UniProtKB/TrEMBL annotation:
Name recorded for this polypeptide: tRNA N6-adenosine threonylcarbamoyltransferase
GO molecular function, one term: tRNA N(6)-L-threonylcarbamoyladenine synthase activity
A single BP term in Gene Ontology: tRNA threonylcarbamoyladenosine modification
Keywords: Acyltransferase, Cytoplasm, Iron, Metal-binding, Transferase, tRNA processing
Binding site for substrate: 142-146, 175, 188, 192, 303
Gene name of this polypeptide: tsaD
Cofactor details (free text): Binds 1 Fe(2+) ion per subunit.
Subcellular location as annotated: Cytoplasm
Residues the entry annotates as binding Fe cation: 108, 112, 331
Main localization category: cytoplasm
Family listed: Belongs to the KAE1 / TsaD family.
Catalytic activity, reaction form: L-threonylcarbamoyladenylate + adenosine(37) in tRNA = N(6)-L-threonylcarbamoyladenosine(37) in tRNA + AMP + H(+)
Matches recorded under Pfam families: TsaD
Organism expressing this protein natively: Cephaloticoccus capnophilus
InterPro entries given in the database record: ATPase_NBD, Gcp-like_dom, KAE1/TsaD, TsaD
């Protein structure tokens, strides 16, 4: 039984995870309403809220009969806000000492990359390893407020980062765009809501980096600048009248940029059709190299249009699509507990007292 803690940003979360039973229980305290008043996450306030709410969430876990079976504590080690991570790590070390169990550090981004498989584990449980193996190698798109990256999980569950963003992340671009449009925080869901009533073809915003097809890097800073230039040409009244169109066009540009890179990554691998036409040793080679599934995770994975677009791309390729459930797309401890068990290559099992906060941790670490 793994007791998992998450505090990388503005959610305080605790979960109990069992390899035999899945996520037994989980608790999350969100600070969204608090930070909304300030137009974004205030690190000092976020840290204070973690200090205030971890005790109650841990006490809720202690009241579960399964708590007596805890033999490991898993905690987000990074990336994230340093002070927020420190609160979680200190809590985990204290629990580890009190329970006399090891404390493992989990990479938050790697946990996002593995989170689409939580639902599969819940369905299969004892047969998970076999079913998971059928979906590997796996191509995952992780899209959150602070990170955008493409990752590959191979047959041995080794995670390799294929690309990241050279500037803004997709979620950050949506939030900054919302701010330019005079919307509130968090901006992404507000842009999505207004976009449903707008024309996505009304404005032609850039789709990130072009160039060579094998360039998988993301870039969204130019998109934000393009929106600013467009707004400078418009009167306030026109912006108000065309707000839905602006949101729809801006959101579509973000999604098209994500899909373009996802398609490029798929094109770099042999296709399923090539595999079916091959024979003998070549067929085996293709089987081991072609992607067997596509994944989508991270907070922005809650965007309905993005989910539909990734699902459509997967269907065209004849591949299963694994999308993180809504409750496991944002910051949550369920995915930390699951990754502590499923990510056999990326967990830091350093002595519990030597475990350190790593706010700039990369997905490949």
């Amino acid at each position: 039984m793994i007791l998992a803690l998450e505090s990388s940003c503005d959610e305080t979360a605790v979960a109990l995870f069992s390899p035999e039973r899945g996520i037994v229980a989980e608790w999350v305290h969100t600070q969204m309403a608090l930070h909304e008043r300030h137009g974004g996450v205030v690190p000092d306030l976020a840290t204070r809220e973690h200090l205030r709410h971890f005790p109650a969430l841990i006490e809720a876990a202690r009241e579960r009969p399964e708590f007596a079976q805890v033999d490991t504590v898993a905690v987000t080690q990074g990336p994230g806000l340093a002070a927020c991570l420190a609160v979680g790590l200190a809590s985990a070390k204290a629990l580890g000492l009190a329970l006399r169990v090891p404390v493992w550090g989990v990479n938050h981004l790697r946990a996002h990359a593995f989170s689409p498989f939580i639902a599969l584990h819940a369905r299969c449980l004892g047969e998970f390893d076999e079913e998971f193996g059928k979906l590997l190698p796996h191509l995952g798109l992780v899209v959150s407020g602070g990170n955008t990256l493409l990752v590959e999980i191979d047959e041995e569950r080794r995670l390799r980062v294929l690309s990241t963003t050279r500037d803004d992340a997709a979620g950050e671009a949506l939030d900054k765009g919302a701010k330019l449009l005079g919307l509130g925080y968090p901006g992404g869901p507000l842009v999505e809501k207004l976009a449903r009533e707008g024309d996505a073809a009304a404005y032609d915003f850039p789709r990130g980096l072009g160039g060579r097809r094998d360039n998988l890097e993301f870039s969204f800073s130019g998109l934000k600048t393009s929106l600013r230039y467009q707004l400078e040409k418009m009167s306030l009244g026109e912006v108000e009248r065309r707000l839905a169109d602006l949101c729809a066009s801006y959101q579509q540009a973000v999604i098209d940029a994500l899909l373009r890179k996802l398609e490029s990554a798929l094109a770099a691998k042999p296709s399923g059709a090539s595999e079916q036409l091959a024979h003998g040793a070549r067929a085996e080679s293709l089987r081991r190299s072609a992607y067997r599934s596509i994944g989508l995770s991270g907070g922005v994975a809650n965007n309905r249009l993005l989910r539909e677009s990734v699902s459509s791309l997967a269907a065209k390729r004849g591949l299963p699509v694994m999308i993180a459930e809504s409750r496991h797309s944002g910051d949550n401890a369920g995915m930390i507990g699951f990754a502590a068990w499923a990510d056999t290559q990326g967990v830091d099992r350093t002595s519990r007292l030597a475990l350190e906060v790593r706010p700039s941790m990369r997905a490949g670490d």
